[in-house]
Each structure stands twice: as structure tokens, then as C-alpha cells.
Amino acid sequence: MLNISHYKIIAIGKTKKKWVQAGIAMYLNRLPGLQIIEIKDSTKTKEEYTIKEIINKKQTLVTLSENGECFTSKQFAKKLIACDNQNINFAIGGPTGLSPSLNNSASWQLSLSPLTFPHEIARLLLIEQLYRAKTIADGGPYHKQ
User: Left if phi > 0, otherwise alpha if psi is -120 to 50, otherwise beta: which for 84?
Assistant: First the structure.
């Protein structure tokens, strides 16, 4: 079982597209306890500093990166289950991504796909995959295979 209240998404920039906002809102309703913190676009150095200020030393940082690990949905669910309900902070960069030093300091890096997505869509995809992972872990019917 996954405790979503242990997860936080730290995202650079605001979501401006209405359809992306609607998708995020739908999944947030399904994932009570999931917190999203938006950080103002700035330099990568300032963004890194702000993200590190938000994260407590006992929390796990996972950055979204094109160089990160790619998982199937079931593998992602197993990875989260293996994290044994650690407090996980997922960091999503803005249009230019996250700083290399922040990616290097992460416990692990996640790639949602070999394709590149706008940061707003990456946020929606991550939230959907967190919901899917929860339903996989809980044995729910959402994930069909």
C-alpha cells in the first residue's frame, strides 16, 4: 500500500493550460494528501537552492530527468513500494530542466519517457502515474493489463 501523503511534487513554474489544470485537479481529488509546491521560474541555481530549502534531510529527492530511469507502470509501483513509504519529493524543472548538481544530488532520477514533454504535461503525467501506482499497489481496477 502506498501512502500518498508521504509524497510531494515540487514544480518550477505555474500550470497555465486549462486542460492540464483540469487533469491535475482530477487526479489530486483522487490522491488526497498529495501536495504540489510551485516555485517561481528563476535561474537554475536559485531554483536548486529553493528546492533544497523545502526538502528536509530525512526526505528522499527524486528528480525528473531525461537521463533518469524509465519504468513500466508496474515497475514504478514496485519502486515506490520498495521505498517503504519514505517521504519522497519529486522535483520537476521548468522549460530548461533542473540543474545538473540537483540531479546528481537526487536519490534517484526518473524519466517519464524517452520523449520530451513540456514541464506542465510532465506534471500531469507524474500525477497520473502516482495514481496508477497507488491503484496497482492497492489492487484496484484502474490499471488494466
Answer: left
